Amino acid sequence: MRISLSVNNRSVESTVEPRTLLVDLIRDDLKLTGTKVGCDTGQCGTCTVLLDGRAVKSCSMLAVQAEGTRVTTIEGANAETGLTDLQEALWAEHGVQCGYCTPGMVLALQDLLATNKAPTEQEIRCGLAGNLCRCTGYQSVVRATLALTGQNGGRNDV
Ligand code: FES
Ligand code: FES
């Protein structure tokens, strides 16, 4: 099947099998390997991308379902000058360790922050409920998000 979509503000046309997953289109066809595969069953969130601005798990969608949409992967989530403020905050607060979950975390947080400029700790944890991390224990990710939004100076125990 022939599909057309926008990926990181670039028009993309591709021919896919009806069963091709969105994550496979992104990683295998478009070579955007910042999007990771962890569980392949919709549980870990490492494959999270933005679809029309909302976080989705790209292992749980068919590529054909993305027809006509605007997809943003981590490669398209950078500021023109480098890291975004969110990425800088994660870096500063040690919210990144092995980094495998980080692309999905960043995009899930971008989705949250797009509609809630000052999420509470609870709201941040809920926003990340679909993203598993085996390294950070989530504390530093939550702290970074609070710091970014000017809450708690990001330094209190959360
Ligand atoms: S690889 Fe998609 S949720 Fe785990
Ligand atoms: S930083 Fe290693 S899984 Fe999250």
Automatic annotation (TrEMBL):
Start and end residues of each 2Fe-2S ferredoxin-type domain: 1-77
Keyword Flavoprotein: no
Transmembrane segments: none
Native source organism of the sequence: Actinoplanes sandaracinus
Cross-referenced Pfam families: Fer2, Fer2_2
Keyword ATP-binding (UniProt): no
UniProtKB keywords: 2Fe-2S, Iron, Iron-sulfur, Metal-binding, Oxidoreductase
The protein, known as: (2Fe-2S)-binding protein
